[in-house]
Specification:
The structure is a single chain. This protein is mainly α and 213 residues long. The protein is built from 10 helices and no strands. Helix 2 packs parallel to helix 4, helix 4 runs parallel beside helix 8 and helix 6 packs across helix 7. Helices cover 79% and strands 0% of the residues. It is globular, with a radius of gyration of 19 Å.
Length: 213
């Protein structure tokens, strides 16, 4: 695969150093043209090549992502519930998310705001709509923002770390191929965890039913 859009974008960002990393992490919250995991992998690879310090790259991307999250959260909260819902539904259609799925995620968020604010930052595509879910439901600002910052830090640290280590162990030099492979592994892991959680819940229900009989 000769076409490597992730590497092309990173070559442009590299000219701006850590300011460029902050800016691309911020822009990704609004214009996810290149998936964040691909960019973060490339940032990790760049750190391995000494384009920027690893810790500084991590902090810059977390700061950019969190600033974007907080901006979306505050903006949508100021629009009011009705207008926010319409805006989120339109954006969801653009990214292939049905209204039913958005409503399910919103209802789930309402039940356990802090935990899901963290968890939604670890789910591709859905993570971009997490500020909207919190704003629509008038989530508690402090707990939502703190939990989301932790989720962003885990997401960014995971892929930057994979990119940093993969640059020494994986032979392919194509960042886009590496990004797609990492996404595949992430999706398989998340599906496995989802089914494991369902299995555990089903066992607990059966156990509770037996205790009642």
């Amino acid at each position: 695969m000769d076409f490597d859009p992730v590497a092309a974008i990173m070559a442009w960002i590299g000219a701006y150093g850590l300011v460029g990393l902050f800016a691309i992490a911020l822009a990704e919250r609004f214009m996810p043209v290149i998936p964040s995991y691909g960019l973060l992998l490339a940032i990790g690879i760049g750190a391995a090549d000494e384009a920027w310090p690893l810790s500084a790259a991590f902090l810059s991307t977390v700061a950019g992502g969190m600033f974007g999250y907080a901006t979306l959260f505050c903006t949508l909260r100021g629009l009011g519930t009705a207008r926010s819902v319409r805006l989120v539904n339109r954006a969801g259609r653009i990214f292939g998310m049905s209204v039913d799925r958005i409503e399910r995620e919103t209802a789930s968020f309402h039940r356990n705001q802090a935990t899901l604010a963290f968890a939604l930052q670890l789910v591709p595509a859905v993570r971009l709509f997490a500020p909207a879910f919190a704003a629509i439901l008038r989530g508690r600002s402090r707990s939502v923002l703190v939990a989301s910052a932790a989720g962003i830090a885990v997401w960014n640290g995971l892929f930057i770390g994979i990119g940093f280590n993969a640059s020494h162990t994986v032979e392919t030099g194509n960042m886009t191929v590496l990004a797609l492979a990492a996404l595949g592994c992430l999706l398989v892991t998340e599906v496995a965890l989802f089914w494991l959680a369902r299995w555990v819940r089903a066992r607990r229900r059966r156990g509770a039913a037996l205790c009642q009989t």
